[in-house]
Amino acid sequence: MKKSKSLRLASILLMLCLITTCAVSGTFAKYVTSATVTDTARVAKWGINMTGGVSAFKDVYSTDVDSNDDAKVVAPGTAGTNAYTVTGVPEVDYQITFDYEGLSEVFLNAGTYYYYDAHGEIDATYAPVVVNETVTSSGKYTPVKYTVTITTAAGEVTGGFSAGNLTKKFDTLKDALDAIKGTTITYEANEEAGLTVTIAWEWAFSNTIETPHIQDGADTILGNITAGTSDLNGIPAGDYSTTIAYTLTMTATQLNA
Amino acid sequence: MPTYNNDNRSNNSSPRRQWVWIMLMVNIVFILLIMTLGIIALRVGNSLPEGTDILFIVGKNPSVSFEDESGVWEAGKNVDIFKSSYGENGGAPTVVSQDGTKLIAPGVKTTYQFTMQNNGNMAVVYEADIDFVLSIGGVSQKDYNFPLKVRLYDDKGLYLIGSEAEYVQVQKAAIAQHPGLLGANSYQTFTLELYWEFEGGNDELDTLYGDLSAQKGVNLTLKINTYAEEHIDPTAQGGNKIEVEGTEEYGGTIRWLWLILLMINSAIIVFYIAWIMNKREQKW
How many CB pairs under 8 A join A and B? Predict the structure, then answer.
């Protein structure tokens, strides 16, 4: 009995020592530290601006062409220019591409056309008009010609236009727009766009050495169609067009690495 | 019959008994001294210099630092998280600053690595989070949607922000997902990834920010905040071990030598007391 008491006393003593030492290790102040670092950046500049779309067509021309209803018109002896520009100096590589829609251009199907009298009979006092196609195998007379010029401050032009061949003439508006649509201009970061795309059109007045494609008879027919004269009997609607229209879209796109 | 002579008998055993009593007292004093000093350590331990051993308790010697490839982080230091130009795989850069200012742009994916070093003798638990400030024309914005995404992970692939499958919008990366553990004499390397999505993002928003930057400047400030505090178990392991010379001791732990001495002394006391009690019983 006395042995167990002494043992118990010694055990209690031992436990007190161990508890004391263990408690000490857990009572010191807790170490805490922190660190913060910072960095700042700016969003890379884009800043592309585009202008254009102002109509190249008028209701009054200096060549004595005057619309009688203020509608914009085209006629033999008229011409105009439309310019589209892109400016800006982005801090990223970028590319300019083109597309178009809503195309309509003046044409008359090649063929022989007759004038009719009030009875619907061919009027023999008027010679039939033979209209030839402007472009071989196109089947159409297209009196308006187009000249497209691309100028750029920098960048690489590829596709429909390319370096060294930045001005081209086209017999049709579709050919001109197709060439523009097939063109891509690629710029490196910080190269100024300075891009101008000019579409010039001209309906020559008469057939000359420089403008051998003009056919006065066909021009007259087109003018009579617009005037709504009944001298021309039932030319199908699909055989002609007396309007020019298009919408050109330019897109600037950042190039990824 | 011979009779016992008490005097003779006591004279023959007194030197050894005295020696036993002396040793017993020494041990008891030793135990009491340790307990007393331990109590004193309770009072003064917090005010002693770091690394000071408290009797048989290893002194705490904390030492946590952060560094990147350009050196140790210092208070208020700017680091190179962003760059002034970006290109892919050593090719020609496609994003280039006009004035040397660091930039960020759609399509940019960049990383920043830093290392947390625990050269102390205690394990620490840590957290890391991101602060992000967007300003347009010098005015800090409050409610905005900025297309930059981030994620943060260690060299063992444990993600503190984001995951392997997804990034987190930078303005939502302010809260760490979970704490990490770094053992004594260990290090851990972290990678911060920043990504502005090129395909599949919001082109209109991207263009808006680019135009605004050209007109009035759009700037963003990124802060990496790290916190470390002593782990409850100084011997906890985590991170990559740094080899140390000699025996590794952990701050706040009891030196085994002292513990052994304490136990031996206690055992001796137990033995003495039991022996004395036994002798008394025999006498009675």
Answer: 232
* Amino acid at position A71, single letter: A
**Inter-chain touch A40–B102, beta carbons under 8 Å:** yes
Contact A23 B228 (CB under 8 A): no
A144: its two tokens = 């308006």
Contacts of B7 (CB under 8 A, 6+ apart): none
pLDDT 10s digits, B18-66: 777 777 777 777 777 766 766 666 566 555 666 666 666 777 778 899 9
Residues of chain A under the 50 pLDDT cut:
1-2, 25-27
Kindly state whether residues B128 and B207 are assigned to the same domain. Answer: yes
Cβ B151 vs Cβ B163: under 8 Å: yes
Structural domain of residue B270, as residue ranges? 16-57+255-283
pLDDT at B9 > cutoff 60: no
Per-residue pLDDT tens over the stretch A170-200? 999 999 999 999 999 999 999 999 999 999 9
- Total structural domains in chain B? 2
The closest alpha carbon to B221, from B70, B67, B79, B71, belongs to B79
Cα separation, B168 vs A105, whole angstroms: 53
Using CA coordinates, name the residue in chain B closest to A4. Answer: B274
Please indicate whether, in this complex, the C-beta atoms of A46 and B213 are within 8 angstroms of each other. Answer: yes
Task: Find the mean pLDDT for residues B215-244.
Answer: 91
In A, minimum Cα distance to B109 occurs at A257
pLDDT reported for residue A123: 86
For residue B182, being part of any structural domain is answered with yes
Same domain? For B29 and B102 the reply is no
Instruction: Establish if B8 belongs to a structural domain.
Output: no
State whether residue A257 sits within 8 Å of chain B by CB.
yes
